[in-house]
Predict the 3D structure of the following.
Amino acid sequence: MSILSTQLPAETSVAPTAGMPARRLRLPGPVLFVVRAVATLWTNGKARIGMVVFGCFVLMAVLAPAVAPHSPYSTDYPPYLGPSGAHWFGTTGNGEDVFSQFLYGARVSLLVGLAAGLGATAVAAVLGLIAGYRPGVIDHLLSFVTNIALVLPGIPLMLILAAYFSSHSVWTIVLVVTLTAWATGARVIRSQAISLRTRDFVSSATFSGERLGRVVFREILPNMTSLVAANFLAAATAAVTAEASLEFLGLGNPATISWGTILYHAQQQNALLTGQWMMIFAPGLAIALLIMSLTLINFGVDALSNPRLREKS
Amino acid sequence: MSGPLLSARSVDVVYEPARGLRIWSVRDVDLDLAEGEFVGLVGESGCGKSTLGYALTRMLRPPARLTGGRIEFAGVDIAYLSGEQLRQQRRDGFALVLQSGMNALNPVRCVEHHFGDVLRAHARAGENWSRAKVRQRGADLLDKVKLPSDVLRRYPHELSGGMRQRVAIALALALQPRLIVFDEPTTALDVVVQRAVMETIQELQRANGFTALLISHDLGVVLEATDRVLVMYAGRIVEDQPAGDLLTGAHHPYTEALLRCYADPRADEVTLGGIAGSPPDLSLDEPGCPFTPRCPEAEDVCRQLDPPLEPLGRGAAACHVRARLATKGAAHAG
Amino acid sequence: MPAEVKPLTLDHVTKTFRTRGRGRVTAVDDVSFTIEPGAAVALVGASGSGKSTIAGLVTGAQRPTAGTVTYGDTVVDRLRAGGLRRYHHDVQIVFQDPYGALNPLHTVGYTIARPCRNFLGMSARETDQRVRQLLEQVGLTPAAQFAPKLPHQLSGGQRQRVVIARALACNPGLVVADEPVSMLDVSLRAGVLRLLADLRESRGLSLLYITHDLLSARVVTDQILVLHDGRVVESGGTKQVLQHPTDPYTVRLLDAIPNPFAA
C-alpha cells in the first residue's frame, strides 16, 4: 500500500499577508497590546469617531491647568454672571468661573469613569474566569455570590453605600460603583470562559506544555478581549453616570470640582432662573458626549477578538 | 409531461457580505432534471453545490443572491416568484432536506407538531387537518421512512441522529413533492447509519417516483446511489455523466483527479491520490477554466476562454482540451 | 530522533461515565492492546464506539475507571499535573478540527514555538530556527511567509499541517491522530496523510490513528483494531483484517462504506 499523488509540491501561500505587518520594534508586552488594540479599533469608522471625541475629553482633562483662564476654586469673581467675554460660561453663585470648573471637572469624570470601569471589569474578569475555568465547588460558590449581587438593586444600593461611607471623596464613589457594577460582567465572562475551555486550542495549549496561568491569560483571555472590552465600556458608562448622579444628589463631596457638582450647585443656586444656563448645559452635554464616545468605541470592539473583522474590504 | 421537470439556465449566484469581498458562488449553470431521475451533484468545499441546491429550491438568504438566469419548474419560472405564489409551488412541487436535517427540527416541539405545521401551512382550500388526520398522515409518512408511529410523540433530542434525519425526510415527503433536493443528508451521520439512510432514500425514490437531487462531497455515495452525476468546481458544472460511465472513465481532468482520491480499501494494492494546489479565489472574476492552475493538461486557451459545457461521451464536460481530442478522434474514426 | 520511543500499553482498561438521564454509560469496556515502538496502529469504529475516549485515556486527559495505561515505565493514569505536563513531551495529539485546534489570535510561528520553549528549553533564536525547520518539513514553504500568519488566513489543509508541526515540535515518541483528515476535502487528504506517514518513518515514532474511514486507515497503518460499543472486536494486520474480516461488526462496517470502486 502506498500513497501516490499527482505532484505534491509544498503548499504555496494563497492569501496575501494582510492585517498586521511584521514589526521589528520590540515593545514591552502590555504596551504592544494596547497599541495593537487601538490600531484595531481605529479600523472601524464609528469607533474612530468615538476615540476622537474621547481623546478630546482626555486632552481637556490633561491640559486644564494650561487652558483654564482662571483657577476653578477662586471665588474672586462677580457672582451670578451669565456667559460673557471674560467668563465664557458665566460665574456661579459663589463667584467661581464656570468654564474653568468645567475644564477641571473633566478630570474627575474621566477618572471615576475609567477607574470604576476598570475596577468593576477586573473583578468581573477574575471571578468570571475562575468560575468558568474550574468547574465544581469554586464555581458554585462564586456563582452564588454573583447571583446575589445581581439581585440587589443597583441604584438604591449605591445611594445607601454612598450615604453610609463617612468620607465623601472621589474614591468612595469609585468604590461604590465598582461594588455595584461587577456582577453582570462576571456572569457573562463565566459563560464565555466555559465555552472556550472546551475548545481544542485550549487543550492544545496544555499539550504544548503551557501552565495554567498561561493558558488562562494567553489563550482564553485574549479570546475574550471583545467581551471584556465591551464590559469595560459599559461599566465606564455606568460609572460616569453614577458619579454625576451621586454628586448631583449631594451624596458626593460638594467641594470637589466635577461635572456632577457643577450640576449640583446649579440646582442649589437655581441657575436657570439667574441666567446661568451654561452651568446646566455644559456639564450635561459633556456627560452625554462622553458616554456617546464610549458607546461608539464599543462598535469596534468585536474586531479585537476576531481577527477576520480587522481586514478592510 | 414532456420536457424536464426542472430546467435551469444561466443561473448565477453572488454572495455579498456586508464586510468583505463579493464572491461568485455559482456561475452560469445550466441544468435539467427529468421526472423520476436520481441525480447527484458532487464537489468539494466551496464549489457552490449547496448554494446551487438552495438557489434551485428558492431557499437562498441574503447575503446570497440569485443574480441571473431562469429556473423553470414544470414550466413555471420560479426564479423570481415570491410569497403566496412560491408557497403554492412548494406544495406538491419541490422540497428540500437540509444537511443537518436534525437541526431543522424545532427542539421544543414534538414530531407530530412538525407534521401538523407543514400540512396545515400548505393546506388547500377546504382541507381540514384535524389532529387525528395529522396523526394518521404522520404515521404513514414515518412508516415510509421505516420509523414506528410512536416517534410522533417524541421530541428531537430523544431521537438518534439517524432517526432525526429520517423524520426530516418524512417531512419533505409530506406534501408529495415532485422534486426533493437532499443537501448532504448523511454527512453528519455515523458510517453505518449513513448506509441505512441512503438505502431508504433510494427505496423511496424508486417507490414514489419523485425526482431527487443528491448533493454531496462524497463521490462514492453519489456514484452508488444515483443515475446521473454532475460535478461542480469553482461554481461551475464541469462534468455531467451517467454514474456508471463516470466510474469507468471521466472526461474532465478534475473528475479524473477526484476519482483517484478514492479507492477500495480491500484491494491488494491501494494508492490514494490527491490534487495539488487549491481552488481559485472566487472573489476574482477571471476568464478561462478555473481548474487551469492545477490541471496537468492545461493549455493557453484554458487560461483565456471559459470552456463551455459541451456534449462529450454520453453526457457533457467543460474542457477545451478533451473536447478537441474527442472531435479529432471522431474525425479519424468517421 | 526522539529520545526513546517506548511501547504504549492498555491493560484491561474500562471507562464508565455517569450521565444525566441514562445512568452509567460504559464508553470503553475491558480494552487491552500494545503499540510497539515505531508501529502505526489504526483504531476504527463508528461514532460512540469509544475511540475518542481511548484517545483521551492514552493522552492522559481522562483516567480509566479500571485498568492501567502505561507508556514505557510511566503509569499514565496516575500522573498528576506536573507529571502529565512532562508526559506531553512524549505523547502528542493531532486533533480532528483544523478550525478549532488553533488559537485564532496567535500566529502560526507562536503556536509552533510554544512546545519548543516549554519542552526543549530553547532560546528565542533557537526556537525561531526550529519553527522554520518544522514549517518546511510539513510543506509550508517559504517558512518565513507562513510563520507570521494567523489561522484564518490559511486553508483547512494548511491549518492541519500547522497542527501536525506543533505536535511534532517537541519530538514526541507517540502521536495520537484523532480523525486528522476527516474534516478535509478528499483531494487534500493524500497530502496530509503522506506527510504523517513520511514524518513517522523518518522519526521512527509510533502512531495511533483513530478514524472511521477505512481507506485512510489502510493507507497509513500496519495494524488495526476494530472497536464496537467500547470493545475491541477484531485486531490484526490492516490489510489482512480488511480483506478477510472475521467479526460480524467488522463485516458490517466494511459493507457500510460506499464502495462503487470494488470490482
Q: What stands out?
A: The longest strand of chain C covers residues 23-35.
